[in-house]
Specification:
It contains 4 helices and 5 strands; from the N terminus they run αββαβββαα. It has about 170 residues and is an alpha+beta fold. Bound molecules: inosine 5'-triphosphate and magnesium ion.
Length: about 170
């Protein structure tokens, strides 16, 4: 850096949260951080869209990819590969208090990335075709999507946990 500017630089060793890593690591950090802000238990969720041709990326970074590339761009990412398979994943993390370890509930739905089809109102729904279905998430009615989605699978596990904890 000193080569390219007139500023002087010093190295400071600071431990800052970066929110990078696996979906599990990221949602765990989120839950722990949230738990420092209240005395009540917290629940956070994070969604990933993972392309197998990219070893699981964009994964938790899908929000920025979607924002910059749009659904058409997401399809273009896989169109040059033989492998168009992907999975949608939702993780709810429940953290009792700031000193306890978050409990994770992973809901996953396998499918593939297709050219965008259907209603464009929610996220990457137009490019995700779940296995066993002819319609993308965006083409399905809400009830059908809810009955099979990554989120509903995560919520089902969370519900079961909370009921047994009661
Ligand atoms: O992670 P933070 O920064 O809190 O942001 P967020 O809460 O908006 O983001 P999520 O992790 O919930 O979701 C990541 C991206 O996936 C999109 N998304 C979430 N659930 C989805 C679903 O069921 N179908 C389609 N897109 C979805 C959402 O719009 C984001 O662009
Ligand atoms: Mg997220």
């Amino acid at each position: 850096m000193e080569d390219v500017t007139n500023f002087e630089f010093d190295n400071l060793k600071l431990d800052l949260d970066e929110y990078q890593g696996t979906p599990e690591e990221i949602v765990t950090k989120k839950a722990k951080l949230a738990a420092t802000h209240t005395d009540n238990p917290v629940l956070v969720e994070d969604v990933s869209l993972c392309f197998n041709a990219y070893k699981g990326l964009p994964g938790p970074y899908i929000k920025d990819f979607l924002k910059q590339l749009g659904t058409e761009g997401l399809y273009k990412m896989v169109s040059g590969f033989d492998d168009h398979t992907a999975y949608a994943q939702c993780i709810f993390a429940y953290c009792e208090n700031k000193d306890s370890e978050p409990v994770l509930f992973v809901g996953k739905n396998e499918g593939k990335i297709v050219e965008p089809r259907g209603d464009t109102s929610f996220g990457w729904d137009p490019v995700f075709l779940p296995d066993g279905y002819e319609q993308t998430y965006a083409e399905m009615d809400k009830a059908t999507k809810n009955s099979i989605s990554h989120r509903s699978r995560s919520v089902a596990k969370l519900k079961e946990y909370l009921q047994t904890e009661e």
